[in-house]
C-alpha cells in the first residue's frame, strides 16, 4: 500500500490580477463632447431637430456617465471650468442656451428640449437638478445676458416641475448675495415662474421644500427686512411676491406669538401681564383684533390635556373657559372679533368630535361672561355660520336663540312703554 499522499491536481495558465469587467473605465469626456458638439452644429437653431438628435444619441452615447458634460454643452456651448468659464482645450458649439435669443418664447422652447430629454432618459433627472444648482453658483462667471436667459429658463423649469425649488439654496451663497447677483437673478426667475403659473402655485412649491421662509436670504444681513424685500420686488414689478413674503413673515410672527402665549399660560402668569404683552405685540406686528382672538382661542384650547370621554370633556371645557374668559374678553371689543371667535368655536367643536355636544354650553358660558354679545350670537345663527357641523350646532342653539329674541322683544316693548 502506497502511504504517500496523492498530489492534488493544480490549474495552470496565466493569472490576471483583475477581471476586465472590474476595471474602471477612465473618465474622458473628449469624444463624448465632440459627438454632441458635432450634432448641435448640424441641427443649428432648429430646437425640434436638437431634441430628436439628443433622443437618438442617448442610445449610442453614455449619457449616464457624461451627464454634466452634456448639460454644460447645451447651456454654455462647452464644458465649464470651476467659476463658470469655458474650458479652453475643448471643442465648443455656438448653438446653445447662452447664445440663443434673450426672450421668453425661446427659453420656453429650450425648456421643452430639456423636458423631452429628461422624460426620455429618466436617470438624468438628478444630474440635471445638480447641474442647475452648479450653474447658479457660477452666476458671477456669466454675462448679464447669460444670467437673464438662465433665470428665465430656471423659472420655466420650476413651473413645469422639472426641478425642485430646493435649487434656490444656491442663490443664498454669500458672494452672490453680497454683490446683489442673487436678488437680480431672482427677479427674472420669479417673473418667468409666475408668468407660467401663478403666485399660489409658486408658494406651494416653495413651502414643499421649506423655501417659503428663506427668501429674505437673497439679501445681505443688513438688508434682510420685510420692508427692504417688499420695496425691492415691488419696484421690480413683483408685488405678489412681496405680498407673499410679508404674509409669510406675519405667519411666522403669529406662530411665535402663539408659542410665547402658551408658555405664559403654562407658567400661570397673571392675565393682566399676558394681556399687556399681547396688546404690545399687536401694535408691533400690526395684527388685527380679529386675528388675535383666533390666536388667543387656539392658545387657550391648546394649554390643557382634554378628556377623551364626551360626557366629561364638556364639564372640563366649561371649567377651563370660565377661568380664561377674562383673557378672551380682552380681545372681543369689536363685533367682528366676536363673530371670529364664534366661528373658531364652531370649527373647533366640529374638528374635535368629543366637543360636538359642548358647543351650545360654551357659547352660553361666554355670553354670560360678557365675551359674546346677543347681537353676535344672533348674527352667527342667522347668516354668519360656516358649513362645518351647521345643522347640529344650529339645532343646539335653537332654544337659546329663541330666548335671546324674546328677551330682546321684551326689552324693546318695555322701552316703548317707558317712552
UniProtKB/TrEMBL annotation:
Record's GO cellular component terms: cytoplasm; membrane
- GO biological processes: regulation of translational initiation
Polar residues composition bias: residue spans: 1-15
**UniProt cross-references to CDD domains, sorted A to Z:** W2_eIF5C_like
Q: According to the UniProt entry, where is the signal peptide?
A: none
W2 domain residues? 247-414
Arranged from A to Z, the UniProt key words for this protein are: Activator, Transcription, Transcription regulation, Translation regulation
Answer yes or no on keyword Transcription regulation.
yes
Segments of this protein annotated with the region Disordered: 1-28
Q: One Pfam annotation, family name?
A: HEAT_5MP1_2
Family label: Belongs to the BZW family.
This chain's protein is named W2 domain-containing protein
